[in-house]
Specification:
The complex is a heterodimer of chains A (228) and B (341). Chain A is an alpha/beta fold. Chain A contains eight helices and seven strands, in the order βαβααβαβαβββααα. Chain A folds into two domains: 116 residues, Response regulator (Rossmann fold); 78 residues, no CATH class. Helix content of chain A is 27%, strand content 19%. In chain A, the strands form two sheets. Chain A has a four-stranded parallel beta sheet, with helices on both faces. In chain A, strands 1-6-7 form a three-stranded antiparallel beta sheet. Chain B has 341 residues and is of the alpha/beta class. Chain B contains twelve helices and eight strands. An eight-stranded parallel β-barrel of chain B has the order 1-2-3-4-5-6-7-8, surrounded by six helices. In chain B, helix 7 crosses helix 8. The termini of chain B are far apart. Classes of the chains: A alpha/beta (228), B alpha/beta (341). Chains A and B meet through helix 7 and helix 8 of A and helix 6 and helix 7 of B.
């Protein structure tokens, strides 16, 4: 899932400068699961903003809303009817959600209340770890099911570097060395020989390096004449 | 320590040209002739004063066969390794240019190698590079387009096939560079380390230089594995040694530098060097420590010469370049042989 966390309150307040009334919109999918932008977080943030701006003497009225999936237009459509009264939309969706609202309601300012961090995995309650960078050319079959692109600080492809110590990455004492884990897994699976193959230079054109990415699936596309 | 057993491994047969034909550097000729080589290291300044480079180069002149020029080492911005290498070369010291995967993508790497080659630089050390979070621009974007293994393969192909990484031909033919990598015998997983060195050879490394070695027992064990795999026959292994400056530095290296082991006995020996010297007499204590550090280093080099599979020593005395000459001298490594073409 997409993992995000809320921006500091003061940063959000500074984005809201000049606004009298805003609509805070949460999202019921990824950011609800990671406790960053669900119904509860929308409630707490809205209340905090009301109280804090009131104390500052320049109150911002914050109304609350939530949509099931902010990254898809049809879920956001019901918001349109009441938007006139707001100076801005404060999105508690991920970066995709914010942009969906901005595209859908071009006459409104849409402000991000969250920082979108990564595609990740809930390692334990309250802990999320990055698992995928969407490089567009998956190598997990070669690496024991552990991603070196997202989990190795140097995105290495040919084994642990000289900074791996006791299974820990030199960059951060709380991060496991991904290549140490890959080594162990490949040994367990009897695939260590693959570790000795020099993996060639990666073609990064499938990643963001290749420019803005888009997938077109003609088999599921709806022809123009059938679009209502 | 892993409980799992690593499979046996033997280096595949190499179809590489003889060492002497790969490059025309002094270092190549000495390695090809099985001379016990001595390399040093020069850290470029955090500024633009060429004289700083010249001064350090003059300290190394005559004591080493070639010297590494570091590339933004520890992710701290310094004068470019190629520029500093050229200044050093003009002082008569042959450079080994270090280049990291951290700061350049494959276009920049190849462009800079063409330039370096045009300037007369012939030795290259391919590195991943310390992570920028440890340096003075922690907010920098790192590159890592290639990893060090892919970097070695690219440069080896640039030489052997005369082609860029994309497959297009290099105008004027291949870059006859001597290509090296780094090896850390003490990082984890410990069992993996000999395999990684072997893999660097497969990727195209002519030589490797190791991380600083203080733990001789561990290192002997590592070298035995490396020799048994047949790696030393294909890859020249130059061992990193360096004089300790104080007992505190020894402890710091043991406790704080990732992938570094310093045995307690070495730390005790350094501590013992200042026994009986008043803690207030700082200069005297420092001199005693430095003398002991140099002595340990000399003894280590002598031990290294007896270990099978070692092609030379890499004396790292960063910001203490004047120590290299007395070390090389006392270890019986001077004068350095010069092998003209």
């Amino acid at each position: 899932m997409i993992v995000a966390e809320q921006k500091p309150l003061n940063e959000i307040k500074s984005m809201l400068k000049g606004c009298k009334k805003v609509l805070a919109v949460g999202c019921g999918t990824c950011v609800t699961v990671c406790f960053a932008g669900g119904r509860q977080e929308v409630g707490v943030l809205s209340a905090s903003l009301r109280m804090s701006t009131d104390l500052d003497g320049d109150v911002v009225n914050v109304d609350e809303a939530i949509v099931q999936r902010q990254c898809e237009a049809e879920y956001n459509a019901p918001l349109e009817a009441g938007l006139d009264e707001y100076d801005a939309i404060l999105s508690l969706g991920c970066g995709v959600g914010v942009q969906s609202l901005a595209q859908q309601f071009p006459e409104k300012r849409v402000l991000p209340a969250l920082n979108t961090k990564f595609m990740g995995y809930p390692a334990e309650h309250g802990v999320w770890e990055e698992r995928c960078q969407g490089c567009g050319n998956c190598v997990l079959h070669l690496t024991g099911g552990i991603c070196p692109v997202s989990r190795c600080a140097k995105s290495l492809f040919n084994g642990p570097c000289g900074g791996s110590q006791a299974g820990i990455c030199e960059v951060d004492a709380t991060t496991e060395c991904a290549w140490h884990l890959i080594c162990e897994n490949q040994l367990k699976l009897g695939l260590f020989d693959e570790m000795m193959e020099v993996q060639p230079a990666k073609d990064w054109s499938s990643a963001r390096d290749g420019g803005h990415r888009r997938i077109i699936r003609e088999d599921v596309r709806i022809p123009d004449e059938e679009k209502a | 320590m892993s409980t799992m057993k690593y499979p046996a491994f033997t280096m595949p047969e190499s179809n590489a040209r003889p060492m002497s034909e790969r490059c025309d550097s002094n270092l190549t000729r000495l390695l090809a002739a099985d001379e016990f080589v001595v390399t040093g290291e020069l850290g470029p300044p955090k500024g633009h004063d060429a004289e700083e480079v010249r001064k350090k180069a003059r300290m190394l002149l005559g004591s080493v066969d070639a010297a590494n020029v570091t590339d933004n080492q520890a992710a701290v911005v310094r004068m470019s390794s190629i520029a500093a290498g050229l200044i050093m070369m003009n002082e008569g010291v042959e450079p080994i240019i270090q280049m990291t995967c951290r700061d350049r993508n494959r276009l920049a790497m190849q462009a800079d190698l063409l330039g370096a080659y045009a300037l007369g630089i012939r030795n290259l050390l391919c590195l991943s590079g310390d992570h920028q979070s440890h340096g003075n621009h922690p907010g920098a974007k790192n590159v890592h387009d290639l990893d060090s293994m892919q970097f070695l393969r690219m440069v080896s192909d640039m030489r052997e096939e005369g082609k860029f990484q994309c497959g297009e031909e290099i105008s004027g033919g291949g870059l006859q560079l001597l290509v090296g990598g780094a090896a850390n015998p003490f990082a984890d997983p410990a069992e993996w380390r000999p395999y990684r060195l072997a893999k660097k050879g497969i990727a195209g490394a002519d030589f490797v230089q190791t991380q600083l070695v203080y733990d001789m027992e561990c290192f002997r064990e590592y070298m035995k594995r490396v020799v048994d795999m047949g790696v030393a026959e294909q890859v020249k292994i130059i061992v990193g040694v360096g004089p300790l400056k104080s007992a505190g530095m020894a402890k710091f290296m043991r406790d704080r530098i990732p992938g570094m082991t310093v045995p307690d006995a070495t730390i005790e020996r350094m501590a013992g060097a200042v026994a009986g010297i008043d803690t207030e007499k700082k200069a005297e204590r420092s001199a005693a420590w430095k003398a002991e550090g140099i002595k340990i280093c000399i003894e280590q080099i002598q031990e290294m010469r007896e270990i099978e599979g070692i092609a030379g020593v890499h004396i790292m005395a960063i910001e203490w370049e004047e120590a290299v000459k007395p070390i090389a001298e006392a270890a019986g490594l001077l004068p350095r042989p010069i092998m003209e073409v």
